[in-house]
């Protein structure tokens, strides 16, 4: 097989057979042609084999891209050695672009490209060739693959695919500092010629920046880039292919370079002096004013702190973290009279100083803050301001001077001052102060043992303006004098065995004294010479404000005397020396052989002449308390008993029945049936029976009427009338049960209800004087003997009596 093509200036001859095989680097296995092998077998016999060279040998075809001719572009030719030019073989191709981009002449095997090819879109096409018998369409050779490569031309310019670019570099960076890298891509074939070899250059901004033409790295060209002057630059970078030669294509992009800040500018105060005013009465910590220093830098490079270089005795400065302002405030109280103008030197210093730029100068600035103090009317000032401590003897007389307090008006006028004691701190009015001089004197006798210190508050008030006042605390210490005798610490008691030996230590006693001498206590102990027990016991002063009691003899007998009262005299060191006598109670007890006490007799033999006054007072107080308790108990019992009797007398709610009935007098006990009142809530219902209603609950005058001819109708009327009463009472009972305000026990309820009618009609005598009355009062005679007189009054008169 051979392949070739010719296009304009280009000419290609494809080698066949062995040459084609070598171009691919391999040789395919030989085959035996069917027809050729058959002919040879006839000539040489069945045992001879002819080795035939393979007929399909392929190479790659080349076609130039971007062909603009009007005729199809000739690509190449395929041919097989089986083709003898008789037109019996048909050539076909298949694969990428077969039949559309590439067509083949079936008879000659010529291949043409019918479309314009672009290597940047597709660099090669893989196809398969087939030789077939034109008549039977049987394949004469196995299908073989070949490649058509699109040959590159310089038709693509470089492109910056990641543009536009944004980079940054610190200001004042040295020359050659790398900023960033830009990269341009060329779609042409980098393996063919110089179409894809790109070089870089700066079109705009080359004064400040350069670019490496091979790598595309942008670098600084100057060392004095200043962010405060210009904080960004716009560059135009160009990329050219063909290694920058004439005729090469190019592309460009925009590069924005931001200049980042460094701390190369110190803080600066806009003014060299600021003036503020403040009242001398302003409290400590009150802001006086604010000043601020500016910094041309940005971000944390503008962070600064402030400090006072001069005048920091009365003022302090702090930094506002949000506004970066210096806040000048009062550190100590101001005094207009002492100094009315203060100059404070405030310095601003950068917090973050870059050591690379220290040689540029100091990164700080100073300004003067002048503070004018205005005068106000101030209250008096005590000297000393924190108060005074005074001392006075406990036995000082009334009117004695304790001490002096001083205060003055600090204003220029220096108004006179009056002094007063705050009586809430001296409610007992023990002290008095002179309003003019401030001298404190005693108004009452002192007692150190009651209160060793007195803390009072003294007020100083301007005489012309009483709203101006100040306070000072005065602590008064009461100095002790020896005015309390020493006493035994407790009522001591001791026990000794009957067989105690002479000189045996019985007990150790100590003493208390309410006084507090500055030199300390020193007590002396002794037994009164008149004490009858001196012959039995001795006292030993231990020289440490304690004393020991020892036996002086042996052989105590508790049956003869089981208790001894030993008086002990105690004297302090004064001055003046005071003394008191205490009593030690000593019990004589029976002991075992080891000295352990077994029992003591309670019978006492009083050795002292009399009880002490304290003991007598305590005994009397106890007896008085017992008497009061007994009287209180008896009073409570009598009060409870009287209260209980009153409750029993008044608790008649279940027995009292109130009703309005005149009756027949005190001797009449049969006029009314009491069972009707005792059973107010149990009225029987009217029953229609042969025997008639139960008349036990009806008044006797109704029962008496049952004997007459109209008794039956009268009973029915009375039963109906009581039925009405019963319903009314039941309703009232329900209302009382539902009322939450009534007491929680049975109570007597009184009601007034007349009913609808009465068989007796009205008993009123209002109409009895009327001569025209037609009422018949004959029924009064049926009511019994008690109404006989009344019936006589209303009985119809005889004509004879009227005539007379």
Features:
single chain, about 800 residues, alpha+beta, Immunoglobulin-like, 5-stranded mixed β-sheet, 4-stranded mixed β-sheet, 41 strands, about 30% strand, disordered N terminus, disordered C terminus, cadherin binding
Would you write up a description of this structure?
This protein is of the alpha+beta class and 804 residues long. Among the domains are: 60-151, Cadherins (Immunoglobulin-like), CATH 2.60.40; 159-260, Sandwich (Immunoglobulin-like); 273-374, Cadherins (Immunoglobulin-like), CATH 2.60.40.60; 381-479, Immunoglobulin-like (Sandwich), CATH 2.60.40.60; 487-599, Sandwich (Immunoglobulin-like). It is built from 8 helices and 41 strands. Strands 34, 36, 39, 40 and 41 form a 5-stranded mixed β-sheet that branches. The termini are far apart. Residues 1-57, 602-610, 676-711 and 798-804 have low confidence and may be disordered.
